[in-house]
Amino acid sequence: MALAASEGTALLMALDVMANGWFIGETGLQYRKHQGQTTAHPDHRSGAEWEARMAAIRKHAEVLARRHLIT
Question: How many CA atoms lie within 13 A of 71 on its CB side?
């Protein structure tokens, strides 16, 4: 999914709707953030661009879920 940010979120949501998962007792994903990166800026988590990005991710996940239920 071509997004300005949150590509990882989109990928994880797509995987979530396509297969059952399980919890493990150890860290499986580690995300490091530094001050200069886009996701560290407050605008990354709010505002019109954030809303549009989350709407695109939700729509993509919903379509994948419907297709997965059909096949």
Answer: 8
Q: Is the dihedral of CA 8, 5, 50, 62 positive or negative?
A: negative
Output the six-digit token pair for 8: 């990882």
> At 23, which amino acid appears?
F
Distance CA 41, CA 34 (A): 10
pLDDT digits (tens, 9 = 90+) for 4-44: 777 777 777 777 777 777 778 888 877 777 788 877 778 78
41: three-class secondary structure by DSSP: coil
- The token pair that represents 19 in the structure block: 């297969």
- Is the pTM higher than 0.70? The answer reads no
Rounded CA separation 30/33 (Å): 10
